[in-house]
């Protein structure tokens, strides 16, 4: 994911942010609420204010099922931890930071084939029924945005 981080860094520089405010290879820790710190993949910190925190993840086969659950739990946990720490004053008193999640999924039959769901007690939300892992990640990312995570 380093190449993507470099591209994003260049875009941030082109937008007028000085290199001295961009951190992608060191000084990546931010305080959390539920844990002491979390290391991000890219930070922009200017004038004592967190401007951007970005996490970049990827997944390749063959174990899409277990990895899907792990990746979604990690992303939700990181977002909730950051937003709670922000609310509790761990950083920034005025500016709300921008939180980003970049995810790259291997395009292969195993990621594109519909997957069955188990519903022994309750029905799952319809958007997950017969959805591939690629579709599940798409739904997940849309829900993260909708929930402001």
Description:
There is one protein chain. The protein is α+β, with helices and mostly antiparallel strands and 149 residues long. The chain has one domain (2-146). 37% of the residues lie in helices and 21% in strands. It has helices at residues 2-14, 64-87, 109-112, 133-146, and strands spanning 22-23, 29-31, 37-39, 42-46, 49-59, 98-105. A four-stranded mixed β-sheet has the order 1-4-5-6, with helices on both faces. The chain has a two-stranded antiparallel sheet with strand order 2-3. Helix 2 links the parallel strand 5 (49-59) and strand 6. Helix 2 (64-87) packs parallel to helix 4. The longest helix is centred in the middle third of the chain and has 24 residues, at 64-87. The model has no long low-confidence stretch (mean pLDDT 95).
Shape: globular
Count up the domains: 1
What's the rounded overall pLDDT mean? 95
Order of helix and strand elements from N to C terminus: HEEEEEHEHH
Number of helices: 4
| Count of β-strands | 6
List unreliable stretches of 5+ residues: none
Helix and strand content put the structural class at alpha+beta
- Strands of the widest sheet, in order across it, are 1-4-5-6
The portion of residues forming beta strands comes to 15-25%
Q: What's the oligomerization state? A: single chain
User: What is the share of helical residues?
Assistant: 25-40%
Terminal CA distance: 21 Å
Give a quick account of the main beta sheet: strands, pairing sense, barrel closure: 4 strands, mixed
């Amino acid at each position: 994911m380093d190449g993507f981080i470099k591209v994003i860094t260049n875009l941030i520089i082109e937008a007028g942010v000085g290199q001295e405010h961009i951190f992608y290879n060191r000084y990546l820790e931010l305080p959390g609420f539920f844990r002491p710190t979390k290391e991000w993949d890219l930070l922009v910190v200017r004038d004592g204010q967190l401007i951007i925190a970005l996490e970049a993840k990827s997944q390749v086969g063959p174990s899409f099922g277990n990895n899907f659950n792990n990746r979604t739990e990690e992303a939700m946990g990181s977002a909730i931890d950051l937003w709670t720490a922000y609310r509790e004053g761990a950083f920034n008193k005025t500016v709300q930071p921008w939180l980003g999640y970049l995810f790259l999924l291997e395009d292969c039959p195993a990621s594109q084939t519909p997957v069955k769901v188990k519903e022994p007690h309750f029905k799952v939300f319809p958007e997950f029924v017969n959805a591939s892992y690629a579709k599940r990640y798409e739904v997940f990312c849309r829900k993260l945005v909708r929930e402001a995570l």
